[in-house]
Design goal:
2 domains; about 350 residues; alpha/beta
Length: about 350
């Protein structure tokens, strides 16, 4: 069935033409070409802005981790369905009790693997494992340029020292490394030094100030970490840019159509829940005791049933709102007295109109 809107991959100008053609075909035919396996909510760090991390004793309250046998069964079925790219993440994925077995199995299946890690555990058995079964790339979360900042952000001693050692180990192995950072109040003054660290090591670096609320039980205080003022400033600039360029959202398009994983990508959370977004974990679809192909079909149907709330259909700021399926899910809620997403959008829109 031909779609009336363009897939996100068509707007990725940096994408190699061959891969762009592959992704376009996947979109047209609804092939799950790209997946993310969130192996565990465990982590050896306790980052203030993390929406996933759970203490080991709290995991049973929220679900049961998939075993290595279950992950590999899912991977086999996903491969048969067309999955080529896999990102392995967590929590800290290396903390999964059966990580070596999972990684070896996925590697032998021939996936293009990306490992997302804090890099503090790239030693011993893990180092040997990655030497034998190297990933296509490793995406490392960098949260400071020294141990003091890491302790403030991640609550651990010698965090930067361990991460820095892990980065150099991976580089010495010839494995491509990319750095990503979340900037919060506790590491904001160190952001330039993080950028310089990436520059000196000639590593790609991306940063964000976006922090989402935790809906999975993680201990996250948005008021403590979020740059509310900077986020509002950025939102207002983006809205003004949309107006100046007449680049408006189409209220007729469904929420999922703005997501790069729409019709060709998926997330499997640590408890077996299937979604197209790490922030949306309420699809009601599980792959634990269901064949992957069936779960994927249900996910495609779920994406098509999602609609914008009625309030979005009549909102005066609808065309310049930065909404997405996840953001509008709790559109009327606020955190400890802060404005809700919708309240802030309407206020900023009125300010722009006055100006």
């Amino acid at each position: 069935m031909e779609k009336e809107f363009e897939p996100a991959c068509r707007r990725m100008e940096w994408l190699d033409p061959f891969y762009k053609a592959v992704w376009e075909k996947a979109f047209a035919e609804g092939i799950p070409i790209s997946g993310t396996f969130e192996l565990t909510p465990r982590c050896n760090f306790n980052c203030k802005m993390c929406y996933v991390h759970l203490k080991e004793k709290d995991i049973p309250k929220y679900g049961k981790e998939l075993s290595a046998k279950e992950w590999l069964r899912i991977a086999e079925e996903a491969k048969e369905a067309g999955t080529t790219w896999l990102c392995i993440t967590g929590g800290e994925p290396l903390m999964h009790p059966e990580f070596p077995e999972i990684w070896k199995g996925l590697s032998e299946m021939g996936f293009f693997l990306t490992l997302q890690t804090n890099a503090s555990m790239i030693t011993g058995e893990i180092q040997t494992l990655l030497e034998q079964y190297p990933p296509r790339q490793v995406k490392i979360t960098l949260y400071g340029s020294n141990d003091e900042v890491y302790e403030a952000v991640c609550g651990v001693k010698k965090g930067f020292t361990r991460v820095n050692d892990g980065i150099h180990t991976l580089m010495s192995m010839g494995i491509p490394v990319t750095l990503v950072s979340t900037i919060i109040r506790q590491n904001a003054e160190d952001a330039e030094k993080m950028a310089f660290y990436a520059y000196v090591h000639r590593l790609p670096w991306d940063s964000t100030i976006g922090v989402r609320p935790s809906l999975r039980g993680a201990d996250l205080d948005l008021n403590d970490v979020r740059f509310s003022e900077k986020l509002e400033e950025n939102r207002k600039k983006n809205m003004e840019k949309r107006i100046s360029k007449s680049s408006f959202l189409d209220p007729e398009k469904k929420p999922c159509t703005y997501c790069k994983d729409y019709r060709l990508g998926y997330w499997i959370l640590w408890d077996g829940t299937v979604s197209f977004c790490s922030f949306l974990n309420e699809s009601g679809i599980s792959v634990r005791n269901v064949p992957f192909q069936k779960s994927w079909k249900l996910l495609l149907e779920y994406e098509e049933t999602l609609e914008w709330p009625e309030e979005c259909q009549t909102c005066e700021a609808a065309k310049i709102c930065e909404r997405c399926a996840e953001r509008v899910r709790n559109r009327k809620s606020s955190v400890d007295g802060q404005e809700s997403f919708c309240e802030q959008t309407k206020r900023l829109y009125k300010e722009i109109c006055k100006e």
